[in-house]
Amino acid sequence: MPALFSRAWIWSWLATIVVFGLTLTLTGRNGAGGLAYAALAFGAFSVIVGLGQMLVITLGPGNVDLSIPAVMTLSGTLALKAMDAAPGTAFLGLAVALLAGLATGLANYILIAALRLPPIIATLAASLVYQSVAIWSNRGLRIKPPEALADFATGRSLGVPNVALVALVLSVAVWIVLERGAFGRWLLASGQNMRAARLAGMPVERVRATTYVTVALFAGLGGYLLASFSGGASLDMGQEYLLTSIAVVVIGGTSIAGGHSNVPGIWGGALFMFLVVSMLNSYGLGAGIRMVLTGLIIIGIVIAANGRRARR
Amino acid sequence: MKKLLLGAACVALSVAPAVADTASKKIALSNNYAGNSWRQAMLQSWKTVTDQAIKDKKIGQADAFTTSENQATEQAAQIQNMILQGYDAIVLDAASPTALNGAVKEACNAGIKVISFDGIVTAPCAWRVVVDFQKWGRDEVDYLAKRLPDGGNLLEVRGLAGTSIDKEISKGIHDEVQKYPKFKIVGSVHGNWAQDVAQKAVAGVLPSLPKIAGVVTQGGDGYGTAMAFKAAGRPEPIIIMGNREDELSWWKQEHAENGYTTMSASIAPGIATLAFWVAQQILDGKDVPKDVSVPFLTVTQDTLDNALKTTPKGSVANKNYTQADVQAILAKGK
After folding, report:
1. Cβ–Cβ contact B232 with A under 8 A
2. How does pLDDT run across B200-220, given as a tens digit for each residue?
3. Label partner for B234 (CA 20 to 30 A): which of A258, B122, B176, B273?
4. Are B150 and B196 found together in one domain?
5. Which residue of A has its CA nearest to B210?
């Protein structure tokens, strides 16, 4: 049991279970299935972008991608415009979304590496450009996704939301790369001490480039799925994922200083972020109190998760 | 005697502007946000109407400026630039009702007319094109009362927390519900006037709610609410819609399938063009009251087909105002 509590992700999961239980006291047992399903469906988007953000944050101090919302909006907008609700175009849309992710990821990395801009500045400035391209490309008109794609995005397999299954596959892939692959070792080593990693002969720059492209690809996929899920892309669809993507990483026990990542914690954090808002809504608390409580609870979990590591 | 004549001429001149030529006047639009379909439709309305007005020589110039970060400080700086650039009037959709008052006052002192709309400012020297948001909220409840004589549980989907518009609509709703004891608001979530946010918030709160008879909304959130009810396998309540094309077409489809009937209300993005003509009228020397009230745009079952026909796909039902419309509104207000 002590071994379990020393794991950084356990706190986000404990919090999730507590919040889930507290909400159930209102809904009764009948609501459990519905609430769990909704948490998995909406949490999936936070997981997808949170995984990308986790990789970037793992790169070490100062590394963070603030362009995630804009990349989501741009990919969703371009993909739905390319598909134009025509049947059989789901993969075309996916390709467009991923291409948008690839292009924005490369652009971010070039700004950071070639111009030596701090990642916070580079990605924030670039996101203004991406957002403007999204506005310019479709003027905020909501185009519906093709019906088959919408059915997939909102549908379920074996009782689990399809989007959650997509997020699960990605999570397993990221986990394998981090825990078993050479790339994962390089990434963690770079995050712990970039200079040491470079001197040890690791391809540090290639790792950074791959990471910034990966986060944008994940954001592109997230935007594509979210737009298909909610019946169309809108210009502010990515907005709330700026803070969410960082929050799920931090709550999940990934070190904000870099060098340590935690995939199971991302799920705990994502489910928690959805459930805590649902709980406070269900208890009928106003928006002001809700935000204050959400903030306090997040701080509490982060202290619990990171305090453990400090003492270890 | 000569002095007296000169004085008389001055008086004559200051009365004359009622027929003053506005063909050389310059109007600027200061807009705080462009990141959603409503604002995009608003900017397009502005362009359509002002381009025509320039062609018709009713105004010299009408430029639109949008701040990128939706910050009051940024918009205040923008207004100061407009003062330096010598605009005759500023039409303003403000980021804050109070934080821009300093900049607005500077503009007024420089002799510039400031006309705020949608996001209005409280500075006394500015004009306000206002929508009766409380009435919007009251009308929603009145409609539901008509449709649901037995009452029932209501879910409230609110807008962006902390904005005056959200507070006003919500106040109208809650005030009116007092009149109908058979209604009970059993849940309230913030949908931020966005379908995806509303969908998420409603899905999270639905498991804890009893049977819902009606949903009161603030526009841009009705379709997402409907999707959340559908995903939860719940019967569709009467959801008040908000004039977005996806909301209207969903309503039309449901009506064709099972006779689903509701109503829809929102402010038309073309309110910017109304503010534009108000500015033109003021520059023309007309006496315009500081508060100009405009009706919000309502769509009923009877007008649904027509509203859908005139609404571009993926946009929002709109109305571009003409000079004559505005003159009629101003005449009625007197």
Report:
1. yes
2. 999 999 988 999 999 999 988
3. B176
4. yes
5. A27
